[in-house]
Amino acid sequence: MTALSRRQVVLASGAVLITGPALARSPGAPASPANRWGLLIDTRKCAADCTVCVSACKAEMGLSGHDRPLTDAQYIRKIEVRDPVGGKLHSLPVMCQHCAKPPCVDVCPTGASMKRADGIVLVDRHICIGCRYCMMACPYKARSFAHEEQTGQQPHLPRGKGTVESCTLCVHRVDEGRLPACVEACAAKAKGAMLFGDLNDPASEIARRVASEATTRIRADLGLDPGVRYQGI
Q1: Signal sequence span per UniProt (predicted)?
Q2: Domains and CATH numbers, the chain
Q3: Where are the beta strands (DSSP E) in the chain?
Q4: What is the pLDDT of residues 71-119, one digit of tens each?
Q5: What is the pLDDT of residues 10-67, one digit of tens each?
Q6: Distances in whole angstroms, Cα of residue 37 to Cα of each of 59, 139, 169, 175, 233
Q7: CB atoms within 10 A of CB 144
């Protein structure tokens, strides 16, 4: 885990509490700007020694390491932030924040980095040239570069050497009306610290909690409007 000060990664408030149920989305329906998919993560329920979300992501996406932690693909990672006042450590998962104004998309010279109409940020490996401008632009260090030939790939996630990749919010599952693998695993095996849903739907649990409870967005000072919110930090 990476130990950072709370002030280094947190800079604004918003709203949330967390648990996990299903999506109000018709399987196979095209991405629509009427939706904005997002995550809310309650760090008070996230144990420092729990990595079920990370394990579920690796299994779902077919990610295999090469014993190089600094360069192996990681779509989600656990970090710790310290409260500068009380000194308390908070454990939280960090992944692509699926920003409304993603800098990775702005700097991509080929259009490989893109944002769907429903707010999910993706990389098209077919037109990614591996320049890694997006990796430099991302303030969350959420993207990885595939240095080696990829083996054991999943049909829903073709990967290619020399391209950039990151969390997709399990878009293949979302398009089928299912939850991301990390959220499902957290609900089943941990304390249900993660909630996924439509931020644009005022009737959804995630939108109701964002509207009524305090949350935090990492580096909110940048004005990127992340789709991932945190509670308890």
Answers
A1: 1-24
A2: 2-231 (3.30.70.20)
A3: 2-5, 10-13, 37-42, 76-82, 89-95, 113-115, 121-123, 144-145, 164-165, 194-198, 216-218, 228-231
A4: 778 899 999 888 888 788 889 999 999 999 999 999 999 999 999 999 9
A5: 433 333 333 344 455 566 678 888 999 999 999 999 998 999 999 999 999 988 766 6
A6: 22, 20, 9, 11, 22
A7: 18
